[in-house]
Amino acid sequence: MHGAYLWDLIGIPSRFQPIAGSLLVCVVALGAGIALRRHYQHTHGIIPRKGIHLEAAVECLVESLRSFITSILGSHAGDFERLLIAIFSFILLSNLLGLVPGFIAPTTNLSVNLSMALTVFIYYNYIGIKHHGFGYIRIFLGPVWWLAFLMLPIELISHLARILSLTLRLTGNMSGEHAVSTLFTSLIPVGLPVVFLFLGLLVAVLQAFVFMALSTIYILLSLELDH
């Protein structure tokens, strides 16, 4: 089945399909968030269920992400963990959407990933300015004042390259995984698709984590000028 078959079926033009996929992911994430919130309000978040279930898996994942963010940001983690976990969740759900027959992962689209990279770029610079004021400019001037004229263009290019890095890394990996999976499963339609399903799941989680981890590091660097 063609990846965009369902979007084509309901008449959405190809140029708008990544946006439609992103909106679908947001709706799913919102619905899941509301369901979890109502569940915890009902149980008061005190009585854990026994056995292996989705709720326990989500709790384990969130706690693992919070521990990772805390290991990098330390005492600042509480201020940013919601945003960073939201970024991870959006990218993960977008990646997983590509594993559903009839859909293409929004993260295979350059514009979707660029918008997320720009959001991270603007946000961590905003945090740096908010935290340091005018002194944030030191992050672009380097540790030695008499080399500032040389370090300024280098640092500016380095920071702008972060947008390109975040965008192309996610786009390339997700597009590559989708292309390879489609090719091999079309050649060997029995058995092999299951292998690539697990491979796609691994890539989906890994790429979401890498994007979140780099975003966390960029926030840390904006908070700590002496690096």
Order of helical and strand elements? HHHHHHHH
Strand content: under 5%
Secondary-structure-derived class: mainly alpha
Number of helices: 8
Helical fraction: over 70%
Shape: globular
In total, the number of strands is 0
Termini gap: 50 Å
Arithmetic mean of pLDDT:
83
The radius of gyration is: 20 Å
Spans of at least 5 consecutive residues whose pLDDT stays below 50 are: none
Largest beta-sheet characterization? none
Number of folding domains? 1
Task: Report what the structure shows.
With 227 residues, this protein is mostly helical. The chain has one domain. It is 76% helix and 0% strand. It contains 8 helices and no strands. It has helices spanning 5-9, 17-43, 54-73, 77-97, 110-132, 138-141, 148-187, 192-223.
Summarize this entry quickly:
The protein is mainly alpha-helical. The protein is 76% helix and 0% strand.
Question: What keywords describe this structure?
Answer:
single chain; 227 residues; 8 helices; globular
Set down the secondary structure blueprint.
Layout: H1 5-9, H2 17-43, H3 54-73, H4 77-97, H5 110-132, H6 138-141, H7 148-187, H8 192-223
Helix pairs in contact: 2-4, 3-4, 4-8, 5-7, 5-8, 7-8
